[in-house]
């Protein structure tokens, strides 16, 4: 359930991604309402009566959905994998899986045809080469197995991005793949697309600081290459606040997440 997005190729250094989410392990669940909602919706998209004997929670984060999967598939056996050791250290004592493994979605440390289900909620967007992620998923899945993932695409946090553009034009917000790119890569993966859709989730905040604090607590603040270094001065922060106010609604300041939901099946 590790979240927010990697750009495409040439994205953030994965060591920085792992370190950022490791630091956020203790605070993550306290601000992860969206992540829980998205993962729950992804679970609901799995085929009816699907009962994997072995499943993988890919990008397990604090293990919230590792435990949910264990409760949902009581006859199955689970593996939880994340790139962030800090997240695994947090998740392991809480249980839910037989094994908790440090690993990368682009190089899964699992043998061929060993999982009936790969479940990944808000994690694969950190991978620079999603084509490789799909190839690895296909390799590890058994025939008839399911790869269900939720990710983020272009349009996510557009309010924050546009507000920063008014301030200094620099890359303060993580970048995201186009939805059309997900469609293209899934179609060419050799996996059968059972469902693939984009759905907006809009959260509201009292002020900009509440949003940026939450992103930091999630470990999902700006990890773009070429991001501004050092502290942000008061004038720039005030400029951001003023620019974001243009988006204010009755419910507060909106933050839009464009979520990609996909369920893919490996042909028999």
TrEMBL record:
Domain Methyltransferase type stretches: 56-149
Membrane-spanning parts: none
EC number: 2.1.1.197
Biological processes per GO annotation: biotin biosynthetic process; methylation
Domain of life: Bacteria
Key words, A-Z: Biotin biosynthesis, Methyltransferase, S-adenosyl-L-methionine, Transferase
Biological pathway: Cofactor biosynthesis; biotin biosynthesis
The reaction(s) this protein catalyses: malonyl-[ACP] + S-adenosyl-L-methionine = malonyl-[ACP] methyl ester + S-adenosyl-L-homocysteine
Pfam families, alphabetized: Methyltransf_11
Entry-linked InterPro entries: BioC (IPR011814), Malonyl-ACP_OMT (IPR050602), Methyltransf_11 (IPR013216), SAM-dependent_MTases_sf (IPR029063)
Enzyme class, UniProt record, top EC level: transferase
UniProt similarity note: Belongs to the methyltransferase superfamily.
PANTHER family (UniProt xref): ARGININE-HYDROXYLASE NDUFAF5, MITOCHONDRIAL
Stated name of the protein: Malonyl-[acyl-carrier protein] O-methyltransferase
UniProt organism field: Pseudomonas khorasanensis
Lineage of origin: Bacteria, Pseudomonadati, Pseudomonadota, Gammaproteobacteria, Pseudomonadales
Recorded name of the encoding gene: bioC
